[in-house]
Amino acid sequence: MIANDKICAVVAAANATGMWKQLTLALRATRTAELRLDWLSGDGEMDKFLARLERQRPHATLIATCRRVEAGGKFRGTIAQQLVHLAAAVRSGCAWYDLEIESSSQCPAEVLDVLLGEGRRIASAHFFKRSPRNLQRVAADLGQGKPDAVKIAVQCDSLGRSLDVLRLARGRKTIIAVPMGDVALPARVLALREGSALAYAPVENATAPGQATLDALKNLYRADKLRRKTRVYGVIGNPIGHSLSPVLQNTGFQARRMDAVFLPFLVRDLRDFLLSIERLGIAGFSVTLPHKQAILRHLDDCDPMAAAIGAVNTVVVRGGGKLYGYNTDYVGVMRALEQRIPLRGSRALIFGAGGAARAVAFALAQSGASVCVCARRARAAKALARAVGGEVVERPRLRREFFDAIVNTTPVGMHPAAGRSPLEARELNCRLVFDLIYRPRVTKLMQLAARRGIETVSGVEMFVAQGTAQWEIWTGERAPVEPMRRAVLRALAREEKIGGR
Fold first, then answer.
1. Rounded Cα–Cα distance for residues 141 and 147 (Å)
2. Global pTM?
């Protein structure tokens, strides 16, 4: 075992002050940290940082790394200079050092023993561009010099390949398996569960593609608490990095003390994900763009309403790997609106005619509302209106027509183009405006409506409602709605604060 705390914080900054600040933050979350000495801007900053480290000697397992440019790091010195810096780090309190194969292959074992014999060695290999065919051979080659641990980091272009990397660590306590790349983020979160000796996470600066932050790995995903029995859920989409579903769903699991985790899956190839369901033990997943329609072809059965809408956003994995689909978007619409206006007998305008518009239209029609559709694509607007027994309203009529509710289902006004509105103020002749966008929380459309004294509903309401409905489908229990809502609002508030700096 390398360390008791298996989440390893990555400390990487250009100067000694920044390194020490990051190390201090890191040790609040974990007692294991990798010190990326190669990120320091020069020998002076390195000496300054190591001198402070030697004086203060924090009670932690520290790993010194001074990776050369040839191995994907920032250090431009010679191998001899690299070894001198690592030796200084070991004397300053680092129990471990990481030496990449590009350097170790050119160093006689006697030299390493003389210079670094007091430290324990991690023999590492990083494949940032190509993935080696035979990972077992790589592991065997790294182990020939009898290091104390072996680390293999591989850029992965598929979820399946990232799971191949994790398989290296099964049953081996001294192998660190690191799948890299955005598609591999779920595998990085599950690495400890799969047997990896460590899982790396940056305090501030990402040092490899596809890393989750230290805060996310420790607190959002609880990577060091996951077991083989932990139920795995997730959201699939492309892109997916912006999704707040992990915040929403993991908050629910933690509030109910459930042994479950919810992960974001960047899915470019739907088949790649589907083939990984059994390997990961996935119990259910959420579906977002662009897979809501495509997933229908892969389901074993589907809820009638989801089939009528023609889109699925929720999948349950049943016995034998059978996939059953639902659509909770329409549930989210009803929960967000029915407490504000009586839907039966009301007249509602849907602006847009895409996948989200279909869910809104079916929800309103099922609730007894009269549905009107206005969209840039006339053919799509007619098809949607026909599907729910509604009518098409051409845009010039909006200035003269009155509606009980107007629902924006287009992405116009979404971050980063937050200053735009899909409709003009004079077109908002209604009692209520519902904008499905939740980034930002208050859109330009909502601002225009509020100035006219019109009640507004944020997309946060639908996001939380559809997400808690998913949670209940997966778990069979009532969702802790308020903690889940507060977590989403806090995350959005942090985003806006950072964006406003």
1. 11
2. 0.92
